[in-house]
Amino acid sequence: MLNITYHGHSSVQLGTEEKSLIIDPFLRGNELAVTKPEDIKTDAVLLTHAHMDHILDAEPIAKANNAKVVAIVELATYMSWKGLDTLGMNMGGTVDLGFAQAKMIQAFHTSGIVLEEEQRIMYAGLPAGYIINIGGKTILHAGDTSLFGDMKMIGDRHDIDVALLPIGGHFTMGPEDALQAAEWFNAKLTIPVHYDTFPVIRQDAEKFVEQLASKGLEGRVLAPGQSLTL
């Protein structure tokens, strides 16, 4: 049994009866979030890239739970400087967390940490997505990405139960491109993420799910704080 909880934006928590992991925790900076960082109980924090709307709450959540932080090596190193227990990896690699295995896949985006006071941007490795095996299910979190052709290869090579795809546009692919991505990933269920948090990425998620259905694909919209069990 696997429980999937959407915390808003790109933050998703995957949990079995005993263990859980959270991806890209961004709660304090999201007015739509209904969960606070101190409410999160987890065993691992997975980060797709270094933008603030994906890493803001990684440090407090990891410290409060003594959780391991998984990220590409450059971002993992940065997080280790904050005193966190990190596990750095790279594109195509797989890490074993005991209760879950996470394979890092490519995403087309950017990744850097903006140091406002220094007016400097620090390189933080490549952006990524994950294919996660947990609770007998295969979950794909695409990260922040545009559409790219190798999504079809990924879908052909993996039997994906749930695909978490950004639909917001502007910073990532929008609904039209995400619809193509959903076809290529060919997951049993597609859940839209990374939308509505800011005015510039407002989208009609229900319409996106209707468009999935017109192509014979199942989709579901989760509100922040809402869960489903597989």
TrEMBL record:
SMART domains: Lactamase_B (SM00849). The keyword NAD does not apply. It catalyses: 3',5'-cyclic UMP + H2O = UMP + H(+); 3',5'-cyclic CMP + H2O = CMP + H(+). InterPro entries: Metallo-B-lactamas (IPR001279), RibonucZ/Hydroxyglut_hydro (IPR036866), UPF0173 (IPR022877), UPF0173_UPF0282_UlaG_hydrolase (IPR050114). Keywords: Hydrolase. Residues 8-194 form the Metallo-beta-lactamase domain. It comes from the Bacteria. GO terms for molecular function: hydrolase activity. The keyword Hydrolase applies. HAMAP family: UPF0173. NCBIfam families: PRK00685.1. Belongs to the UPF0173 family. Counteracts the endogenous Pycsar antiviral defense system. Phosphodiesterase that enables metal-dependent hydrolysis of host cyclic nucleotide Pycsar defense signals such as cCMP and cUMP. This is UPF0173 metal-dependent hydrolase DET54_102246. It comes from Paenibacillus pabuli.
